[in-house]
Specification:
Arc Repressor Mutant, subunit A; about 110 residues; 2 domains; mainly alpha; 7 helices
Amino acid sequence: MAYDLNGLFNRIHRSLRSTPYLSLHELSIRICVERHTIEKAVKKATGKTFREVRNDMLLEQAKGLLDNNPNQSIKEVAFKLGYRSQRSFSRFIKSSVGCSPKELRGSRSQL
């Protein structure tokens, strides 16, 4: 089946906005499209891999939650984003921006 890859990317983007922690497999089932086709649509629209796009969206949402909910614990933010542990969330943040979630929250609140 031939897909409108731009239209498909819009569906992918909406799904990841609402549930950014979806795996490629889970997204494939949710929108009833083969994983390869999803990867192709994402690559064509962004030049990035599915994982890169998903991680960018996760990071954007993490930053928003850390900024807008200063009284919410890092653990609560991690769980809201689909992480099963604060530790894995912290590793994700550290590898993405080079600091801990607590440091990221502090540096962004000083801006």
